[in-house]
Design brief:
about 280 residues, alpha/beta, nine-stranded mixed sheet, 9 strands, globular, binds ligand C2E, binds calcium ion
């Protein structure tokens, strides 16, 4: 039993060592990717569930390792937040997304783009200026940019975040609360932050047909949005039955694999052009 205990200790320290090495390699990869401008951005369509009309696209960061394997954002985004690299990552995603959106507009497609803003980005006092400067530089109408912010970001430094968001709203951008229902926003926060859109988290959408509790949450979010005159969008729609239920409950905008996975910028342009001809 004694030697077993010893083995276990070394097993765990090996694991810890592997973990630290992996993390370190990932950080180097992220630094390299950012300094070589190799971060990619994919776009997932947002649609009217009833008519299929395209209403927007969400920009999602993508990174490959040196072997060309994709690294999941759920791995590199938290790392970027912890290391402070999120400021640069956020800047690059924002610029690429706005440039693409401008490109779509020049092709004749009026498609707003949504960009995720991590909680840590609100610690950057230059965030608002960075966004408004970019819109001015590109001559992109602010109405074409939507910012997706999580509840946790709002809770960090309430008065500072509130003032940043109200400046962004004054500039004309739209604000959505991402992963709504998973955090702890209260009604008073929704009012205070002048939110435009509630985004129903995919965990609820994916289980609403099999879990009564999730169904109740979806219903509650929909009725909250309706009574506060907020727009709604459901994410993570994978099957027809989820789409039908959402429409029935009063949510008519959504995104998910049922319609399209996130697409590279080339594939998204092809998607736009294909749709236009059908
Ligand atoms: P999110 O903002 O909630 O984005 C939605 C995630 O759900 C994306 O994962 C998307 O690919 C995935 N998704 C879309 N439709 C479906 C579906 O029907 N089924 C399932 N199972 N998943 C679906 P992704 O791209 O892996 O991103 C994960 C998270 O990483 C994002 O969650 C967001 O929090 C973060 N993230 C991604 N890109 C950025 C970025 O540029 N900036 C920041 N701050 N965060 C980002
Ligand atoms: Ca999002
Ligand atoms: Ca989400
Ligand atoms: Ca559940």
């Amino acid at each position: 039993a004694k030697s077993e205990g010893r083995n276990r200790t070394s097993f765990f320290s090996d694991e810890l060592e592997q973990h630290i090495i992996h993390r370190h390699q990932l950080e180097l990869l992220l630094r390299d990717t950012l300094s070589n401008n190799q971060l990619q951005v994919y776009y997932q369509p947002k649609l009217c569930l009833e008519t299929g009309r395209l209403l927007g696209a969400e920009a999602l960061a993508r990174m490959q390792d040196h072997q060309g394997q994709w690294v999941s954002p759920s791995e590199f985004i938290p790392l970027a937040e912890e290391t402070g690299l999120i400021t640069e990552l956020g800047r690059q995603v924002l610029r690429q997304a706005c440039q693409e959106c401008l490109g779509w507009q020049r092709l004749g497609y009026h498609v707003p783009v949504s960009v995720n803003i991590a909680a840590a980005q609100f610690a950057d006092p230059l965030l608002v200026k960075q966004i408004t400067d970019l819109l001015t530089e590109l001559q992109l109408p602010a109405q074409l940019l939507e910012l997706e912010v999580t509840e946790s970001a709002l809770m960090l430094d309430v008065s500072k975040t509130q003032s940043m968001l109200s400046q962004l709203k004054a500039a004309g951008t739209c604000i959505a609360i991402d992963d709504f229902g998973t955090g702890y926003s209260s009604l008073s926060y929704l009012k205070k932050f002048q939110v435009d859109v509630l985004k129903i988290d995919k965990s609820f959408v994916q289980e609403m047909l099999i879990d009564r509790g999730d169904m109740e949450i979806v219903k509650a979010v929909i009725s909250l949005a309706q009574s506060m005159h907020l727009q709604l969008i459901a994410e993570g729609i994978e099957i027809e039955a989820q789409k039908d239920m959402l429409i029935q409950l009063g949510c008519s905008v959504g995104q998910g694999y049922l319609f399209s996975k996130p697409l590279s910028k080339e594939d998204f342009k092809a998607y736009l052009q294909q749709r236009a001809t059908v």
